[in-house]
Design a protein that fits this description.
The chain has 3 helices and 10 strands; from the N terminus they run ααββββββαββββ. With 248 residues, it is of the alpha+beta class. It folds into 2 domains: 59 residues; 119 residues, Immunoglobulin-like. The longest helix has 66 residues.
Amino acid sequence: MSADPSQPQPRAAHGGLARLCAVLLLGVLVGGAAGFFHARQLYRPQDAIVISAKQAEAQEEAMRQQATQLRYTQGQLDTADGELVIERSARQELESQLHAAQAEIGRVRDQLAFYEQLLPPGPEGAVDIRGVQIDRAGGGLRYKVLLMRSGRNGAAPFAGALRFQATGILKGETVTVDLAPMQVKAETGPVTATGDNLAAASLALQFDQYQRSQGMLSVPEGFVPESVTVSVLEGETVRASRSVKLEL
Protein backbone atom coordinates (compact mmCIF):
# COMPACT_ATOMS: atom_id res chain seq x y z
CA MET A 1 0.00 0.00 0.00
CA SER A 2 1.58 3.28 -1.12
CA ALA A 3 1.61 6.59 0.95
CA ASP A 4 -0.70 9.38 0.13
CA PRO A 5 1.36 12.37 -1.05
CA SER A 6 -1.39 14.82 0.02
CA GLN A 7 -0.97 13.97 3.75
CA PRO A 8 1.78 16.13 5.65
CA GLN A 9 4.80 14.34 6.87
CA PRO A 10 5.32 14.49 10.65
CA ARG A 11 9.10 14.93 10.58
CA ALA A 12 8.95 17.87 8.12
CA ALA A 13 6.27 19.68 10.18
CA HIS A 14 8.20 19.29 13.44
CA GLY A 15 11.42 20.67 11.90
CA GLY A 16 9.71 23.75 10.49
CA LEU A 17 8.15 24.59 13.86
CA ALA A 18 11.56 24.38 15.56
CA ARG A 19 13.10 26.69 13.02
CA LEU A 20 10.31 29.21 13.51
CA CYS A 21 10.75 29.20 17.32
CA ALA A 22 14.49 29.70 16.95
CA VAL A 23 13.99 32.67 14.67
CA LEU A 24 11.45 34.21 17.06
CA LEU A 25 13.78 33.69 20.07
CA LEU A 26 16.70 35.24 18.22
CA GLY A 27 14.55 38.24 17.34
CA VAL A 28 13.50 38.67 20.94
CA LEU A 29 17.12 38.55 22.16
CA VAL A 30 18.31 41.01 19.54
CA GLY A 31 15.43 43.35 20.29
CA GLY A 32 15.98 43.13 24.07
CA ALA A 33 19.68 43.89 23.70
CA ALA A 34 18.95 46.83 21.44
CA GLY A 35 16.36 48.17 23.91
CA PHE A 36 18.77 47.82 26.85
CA PHE A 37 21.55 49.75 25.16
CA HIS A 38 19.06 52.35 23.96
CA ALA A 39 17.67 52.84 27.48
CA ARG A 40 21.21 53.02 28.89
CA GLN A 41 21.99 55.83 26.48
CA LEU A 42 18.78 57.65 27.43
CA TYR A 43 19.15 57.47 31.25
CA ARG A 44 22.91 57.91 31.56
CA PRO A 45 24.00 61.59 31.64
CA GLN A 46 25.97 62.62 28.64
CA ASP A 47 28.80 64.00 30.86
CA ALA A 48 28.97 60.97 33.19
CA ILE A 49 32.50 59.95 34.13
CA VAL A 50 33.38 56.36 34.69
CA ILE A 51 36.15 55.83 37.26
CA SER A 52 38.17 52.80 38.05
CA ALA A 53 38.13 50.84 41.29
CA LYS A 54 41.54 52.28 42.22
CA GLN A 55 40.26 55.82 41.75
CA ALA A 56 37.19 55.02 43.88
CA GLU A 57 39.44 53.73 46.68
CA ALA A 58 41.53 56.90 46.51
CA GLN A 59 38.41 59.03 46.85
CA GLU A 60 37.21 56.99 49.83
CA GLU A 61 40.62 57.41 51.50
CA ALA A 62 40.45 61.17 50.96
CA MET A 63 36.97 61.23 52.49
CA ARG A 64 38.21 59.27 55.52
CA GLN A 65 41.07 61.76 56.01
CA GLN A 66 38.64 64.67 55.79
CA ALA A 67 36.39 63.00 58.37
CA THR A 68 39.41 62.54 60.69
CA GLN A 69 40.37 66.20 60.27
CA LEU A 70 36.79 67.21 60.99
CA ARG A 71 36.74 65.20 64.24
CA TYR A 72 40.08 66.78 65.27
CA THR A 73 38.76 70.28 64.57
CA GLN A 74 35.59 69.49 66.53
CA GLY A 75 37.73 68.34 69.46
CA GLN A 76 39.64 71.61 69.39
CA LEU A 77 36.37 73.55 69.38
CA ASP A 78 35.10 71.55 72.37
CA THR A 79 38.36 72.26 74.26
CA ALA A 80 38.10 75.96 73.46
CA ASP A 81 34.50 75.97 74.70
CA GLY A 82 35.60 74.34 77.97
CA GLU A 83 38.36 76.89 78.49
CA LEU A 84 35.89 79.69 77.77
CA VAL A 85 33.54 78.34 80.44
CA ILE A 86 36.42 78.22 82.97
CA GLU A 87 37.50 81.77 82.13
CA ARG A 88 33.91 82.98 82.43
CA SER A 89 33.60 81.31 85.85
CA ALA A 90 36.90 82.85 87.02
CA ARG A 91 35.76 86.28 85.83
CA GLN A 92 32.49 85.92 87.71
CA GLU A 93 34.40 84.94 90.85
CA LEU A 94 36.64 88.01 90.52
CA GLU A 95 33.59 90.20 89.98
CA SER A 96 32.01 88.75 93.13
CA GLN A 97 35.19 89.49 95.11
CA LEU A 98 35.27 93.02 93.71
CA HIS A 99 31.66 93.60 94.71
CA ALA A 100 32.41 92.26 98.20
CA ALA A 101 35.44 94.57 98.50
CA GLN A 102 33.36 97.53 97.34
CA ALA A 103 30.69 96.65 99.88
CA GLU A 104 33.35 96.49 102.62
CA ILE A 105 34.69 99.89 101.58
CA GLY A 106 31.18 101.29 101.73
CA ARG A 107 30.67 99.79 105.19
CA VAL A 108 33.94 101.30 106.46
CA ARG A 109 33.02 104.69 105.05
CA ASP A 110 29.69 104.51 106.84
CA GLN A 111 31.49 103.69 110.09
CA LEU A 112 33.85 106.60 109.59
CA ALA A 113 30.94 108.95 108.97
CA PHE A 114 29.32 107.67 112.18
CA TYR A 115 32.50 108.22 114.21
CA GLU A 116 32.93 111.69 112.73
CA GLN A 117 29.51 112.59 114.05
CA LEU A 118 30.42 111.41 117.54
CA LEU A 119 33.55 113.56 117.86
CA PRO A 120 34.26 116.86 116.13
CA PRO A 121 37.37 116.90 113.94
CA GLY A 122 40.54 118.34 115.42
CA PRO A 123 42.83 120.97 113.92
CA GLU A 124 44.56 120.45 110.58
CA GLY A 125 46.84 117.40 110.74
CA ALA A 126 45.70 116.34 114.21
CA VAL A 127 45.35 112.63 115.00
CA ASP A 128 42.30 111.51 116.93
CA ILE A 129 41.32 108.23 118.53
CA ARG A 130 37.81 107.88 117.13
CA GLY A 131 36.92 104.57 118.70
CA VAL A 132 38.32 102.17 121.30
CA GLN A 133 36.98 98.81 122.45
CA ILE A 134 38.83 96.67 125.01
CA ASP A 135 37.44 93.42 126.44
CA ARG A 136 38.78 90.71 128.69
CA ALA A 137 39.60 87.53 126.76
CA GLY A 138 41.02 84.64 128.76
CA GLY A 139 44.34 85.73 130.24
CA GLY A 140 44.66 88.79 128.00
CA LEU A 141 42.80 91.79 126.64
CA ARG A 142 41.29 92.04 123.17
CA TYR A 143 41.33 95.52 121.67
CA LYS A 144 40.06 97.42 118.64
CA VAL A 145 41.20 100.96 117.84
CA LEU A 146 40.11 103.33 115.08
CA LEU A 147 42.33 106.33 114.34
CA MET A 148 41.58 109.32 112.12
CA ARG A 149 43.60 112.26 110.97
CA SER A 150 42.19 115.66 110.02
CA GLY A 151 43.43 117.37 106.90
CA ARG A 152 43.34 117.33 103.13
CA ASN A 153 44.52 114.53 100.90
CA GLY A 154 48.09 114.78 99.71
CA ALA A 155 49.67 115.55 103.08
CA ALA A 156 52.59 113.44 104.27
CA PRO A 157 51.45 110.24 106.06
CA PHE A 158 51.41 110.22 109.84
CA ALA A 159 54.09 107.97 111.35
CA GLY A 160 53.92 106.97 114.99
CA ALA A 161 52.96 104.12 117.33
CA LEU A 162 50.30 102.94 119.76
CA ARG A 163 50.94 102.54 123.48
CA PHE A 164 48.75 100.69 125.96
CA GLN A 165 49.04 101.34 129.70
CA ALA A 166 46.83 99.55 132.22
CA THR A 167 46.03 100.56 135.77
CA GLY A 168 45.04 97.82 138.21
CA ILE A 169 45.87 95.73 141.23
CA LEU A 170 49.12 93.79 141.57
CA LYS A 171 49.96 92.11 144.89
CA GLY A 172 47.43 94.28 146.74
CA GLU A 173 48.71 97.56 145.33
CA THR A 174 47.42 99.86 142.58
CA VAL A 175 50.01 100.08 139.82
CA THR A 176 50.27 101.14 136.16
CA VAL A 177 52.02 98.86 133.70
CA ASP A 178 52.73 98.89 129.98
CA LEU A 179 50.94 96.16 128.05
CA ALA A 180 52.73 94.34 125.23
CA PRO A 181 50.82 92.80 122.34
CA MET A 182 50.48 89.04 121.97
CA GLN A 183 49.09 89.49 118.48
CA VAL A 184 48.24 92.49 116.35
CA LYS A 185 46.06 92.58 113.26
CA ALA A 186 46.74 95.75 111.31
CA GLU A 187 45.89 96.57 107.69
CA THR A 188 48.63 94.20 106.49
CA GLY A 189 47.41 91.22 108.56
CA PRO A 190 48.20 89.66 111.96
CA VAL A 191 51.69 89.95 113.45
CA THR A 192 52.67 87.85 116.46
CA ALA A 193 55.01 89.57 118.93
CA THR A 194 58.01 87.53 120.12
CA GLY A 195 60.26 90.27 121.54
CA ASP A 196 60.42 93.92 122.56
CA ASN A 197 61.56 95.21 119.18
CA LEU A 198 58.94 93.21 117.31
CA ALA A 199 56.29 94.22 119.82
CA ALA A 200 57.07 97.87 119.22
CA ALA A 201 57.10 97.34 115.45
CA SER A 202 53.73 95.58 115.57
CA LEU A 203 52.19 98.69 117.20
CA ALA A 204 53.73 101.08 114.65
CA LEU A 205 51.37 103.39 112.75
CA GLN A 206 51.59 104.90 109.30
CA PHE A 207 48.47 106.19 107.57
CA ASP A 208 47.01 109.14 105.67
CA GLN A 209 43.47 109.61 106.97
CA TYR A 210 42.44 106.58 109.02
CA GLN A 211 43.71 103.24 110.30
CA ARG A 212 42.16 100.35 112.19
CA SER A 213 44.18 98.16 114.53
CA GLN A 214 43.07 95.17 116.58
CA GLY A 215 44.70 92.34 118.46
CA MET A 216 45.44 90.78 121.86
CA LEU A 217 47.36 92.36 124.74
CA SER A 218 49.36 90.32 127.21
CA VAL A 219 48.58 90.86 130.91
CA PRO A 220 51.35 90.29 133.51
CA GLU A 221 50.84 87.33 135.78
CA GLY A 222 48.92 88.25 138.94
CA PHE A 223 47.92 91.66 137.58
CA VAL A 224 44.19 92.54 137.50
CA PRO A 225 43.63 95.47 135.09
CA GLU A 226 40.81 97.90 135.83
CA SER A 227 41.31 100.48 133.07
CA VAL A 228 43.46 100.89 129.97
CA THR A 229 44.81 104.09 128.44
CA VAL A 230 45.51 104.10 124.70
CA SER A 231 47.98 106.70 123.46
CA VAL A 232 49.14 107.70 119.98
CA LEU A 233 52.82 108.60 120.01
CA GLU A 234 54.79 110.57 117.45
CA GLY A 235 58.32 109.95 118.59
CA GLU A 236 58.13 110.64 122.32
CA THR A 237 55.23 113.07 122.00
CA VAL A 238 51.68 111.99 122.83
CA ARG A 239 49.37 113.20 120.03
CA ALA A 240 46.15 111.61 121.31
CA SER A 241 45.06 109.63 124.36
CA ARG A 242 41.94 107.88 125.55
CA SER A 243 41.09 105.78 128.61
CA VAL A 244 38.67 102.85 128.80
CA LYS A 245 37.32 101.34 132.02
CA LEU A 246 37.17 97.55 131.91
CA GLU A 247 34.07 95.66 132.89
CA LEU A 248 34.44 93.07 135.62
